[in-house]
């Protein structure tokens, strides 16, 4: 027999073997390999014999029998079923149009708070002169320590302790109609002593000034450190 007849007869016999493999019962095949091939076909679809031979490392003839048995039990799903499954899926909702941007409201500017001088101090009546030393003690400073500490901390007291104090009459004060309040830089820092306030009011009245008035004089701060933690006020006024 010539060489081409031998090749032809071999290919013809292998074709006959592969065509008859589908008619072999599954019991005649390797059960373990058949289960493995079925699982593979169920997951990834039908396999060709050469794919099984490469994956399972078996002969081509054995792979042909396994492929025929596994593919026969797991046919390829038809396109009609696939289209039916796609038809059962709910249609995707159409995207909503983007919301229109809302313009931010402009921030309202806060009104500036009036300084204490602008809030209630009367116009300046006059200034007290005479070169008196700042040795007149003000009373009631304990009620105004926040303002006094603010004044003290704003300066270097060792070299800059010169202030201007405003003495303001308070005729409507419910505790003392002769009360004279003391202000520094618009902050109330205390009062003149009761007896001194009465004498001061009389001296101002003798000058023809009545009602609510405001006089200015020099002042210094004292204390605020060591054994004198409270800040005090000393005015340039003649001692009675």
Question: What does the model show?
Answer:
The longest helix has 17 residues, at 3-19. Helix 2 (31-44) packs across helix 4 (60-73) and helix 3 (49-56) crosses helix 4 (60-73). It contains eight helices and seven strands, in the order ααααααββαβββαββ. Among the domains are: 31-72; 126-235, 2-Layer Sandwich (Alpha-Beta Plaits). 19% of the residues are buried. The protein is an alpha+beta fold and 240 residues long. Strands 1, 2, 3, 4, 5, 6 and 7 form a seven-stranded mixed sheet that branches. Residues 1-28 and 113-119 have low confidence and may be disordered. The chain has helices at 3-19, 31-44, 49-56, 60-73, 79-88, 116-120, 145-153, 194-206, and strands at 126-127, 134-137, 163-169, 180-184, 187-191, 214-225, 228-236. The termini are far apart. Strand 6 (214-225) and strand 7 form a beta hairpin.
Distinctive features:
240 residues, 7-stranded mixed beta sheet, 18% strand, alpha+beta, rod-shaped, Alpha-Beta Plaits
Give the helices and strands, then pairings.
Blueprint lengths: L2 H17 L11 H14 L4 H8 L3 H14 L5 H10 L27 H5 L5 E2 L6 E4 L7 H9 L9 E7 L10 E5 L2 E5 L2 H13 L7 E12 L2 E9 L4
Parallel strand pairs: 1-6
Antiparallel strand pairs: 2-7, 3-4, 3-6, 4-5, 6-7
Keywords: Hydrolase, Metal-binding
GO molecular function: hydrolase activity, acting on acid anhydrides, in phosphorus-containing anhydrides; nucleic acid binding; zinc ion binding
Pfam families: HIRAN
